[in-house]
């Protein structure tokens, strides 16, 4: 066991620094889960640890993962996208910061420098293309139409559409109360950590009135008997609608875009809806296709 000596004082036993493998469970539990981070964030951090960090640094003490080890990590991930590499580096950096805050290590063992990422570019739907999506959705069935209008005209993200309940719709005031979001079965607050209200257009109001049913609390339901609509199902719906509309099939019902205001075509002419989600404008990137 190492000791620290100072003149005129007794030897002080130094704390043993744990390995990354030993530190990972505490980091996920007390550093992430205890701070109410979203399930999607927790799963992403665990995957990064399991796939990228633990196989390389698991047996090393935290204070032994220095700049040379970080540089080697970057070199080994050279075939991965800069965004993926940065996600890995951010998790490693937060492990260091958390350990430092808990006095597990005396100082940051490495300086983490992120890679430069080129600004993401997005294609956009023109107004007439969005109307083609609406027409195509109506031809499939009423649920597909409600899905498209909720995303394109009410600003709802994929997870918010899935978790939307019939009691969240206020026909008297003409608003939707967006109180929750669902990701892979986990129900959390909407993006941003707080509820909000979304205004309804006339045709969305009419569509939601016709959508009322006794099959459960959620707005959308499944005809195959499955209890819940999922992200995978909505991506399939989007592919079907895009194909029927004669547009490029992406299958993505949401991406790094935040829906724009209803009536964007005449009130905010400089905004154009993203091709990855009807009636959207760009915002900071998010992971996955359905958040």
Defining traits:
three-stranded antiparallel beta sheet; 9 strands; mainly alpha; 42% helix; single chain; 291 residues; elongated
What does the model show?
The protein is mostly helical. Among the domains are: 20-102, DNA polymerase, domain 1, CATH 1.10.150; 127-245, Intergrase catalytic core (hpI Integrase, Chain A), CATH 1.10.443.10. Helix content is 42%, strand content 9%. The protein has 10 helices and 9 strands. The chain has a 3-stranded antiparallel beta sheet with strand order 3-4-7, with no helix packed on it. A two-stranded antiparallel sheet has the order 1-2. A two-stranded antiparallel ribbon has the order 5-6. Strand 1 (3-4) and strand 2 (12-13) form a beta hairpin. The longest helix has 20 residues, at 82-101. The two termini are 48 Å apart.
CATH class term of the domain at 127-245: Mainly Alpha
Strand count, sense and barrel status of the largest sheet are: 3 strands, antiparallel
**Overall body shape:** elongated
CATH superfamily of the domain at 127-245: Intergrase catalytic core
Question: How many beta-strand segments?
Answer: 9
Low-confidence stretches: 254-273, 278-291
The CATH architecture category of the domain at 127-245 equals Orthogonal Bundle
Rg (C-alpha, Å):
24 Å
């Amino acid at each position: 066991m190492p000791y620290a000596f100072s003149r005129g004082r007794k030897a002080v036993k130094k704390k043993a620094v744990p390995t990354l493998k030993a530190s990972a469970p505490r980091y996920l539990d007390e550093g992430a889960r205890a701070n109410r981070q979203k399930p999607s964030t927790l799963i992403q951090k665990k995957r990064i640890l399991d796939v990228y960090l633990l196989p390389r640094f698991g047996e090393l003490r935290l204070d032994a993962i220095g700049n040379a080890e970080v540089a080697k990590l970057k070199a080994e991930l050279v075939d991965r996208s800069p965004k993926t590499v940065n996600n890995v580096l951010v998790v490693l950096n937060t492990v260091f910061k958390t350990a430092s805050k808990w006095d597990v290590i005396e100082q940051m063992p490495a300086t983490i420098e992120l890679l430069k990422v080129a600004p993401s570019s997005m294609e956009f739907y023109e107004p007439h293309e969005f109307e083609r999506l609406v027409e195509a959705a109506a031809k499939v069935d009423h649920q597909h139409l409600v899905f498209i209008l909720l995303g394109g005209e009410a600003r709802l993200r994929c997870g918010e559409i899935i978790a939307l309940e019939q009691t969240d719709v206020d026909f008297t005031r003409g608003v939707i109360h967006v109180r929750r979001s669902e990701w892979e079965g986990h129900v959390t607050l909407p993006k941003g950590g707080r509820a909000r209200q979304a205004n309804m257009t006339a045709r969305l109001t009419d569509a939601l009135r016709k959508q009322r049913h006794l099959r459960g609390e959620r707005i959308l339901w499944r005809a195959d008997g499955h209890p819940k609509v999922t992200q995978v199902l909505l991506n399939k719906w989007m592919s079907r609608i895009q194909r029927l509309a004669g547009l490029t099939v992406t299958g993505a019902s949401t991406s790094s875009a935040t829906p724009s205001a209803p009536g964007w075509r005449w009130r905010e002419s400089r905004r154009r809806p993203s091709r990855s989600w009807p009636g959207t404008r760009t915002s900071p990137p998010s992971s996955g296709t359905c958040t």
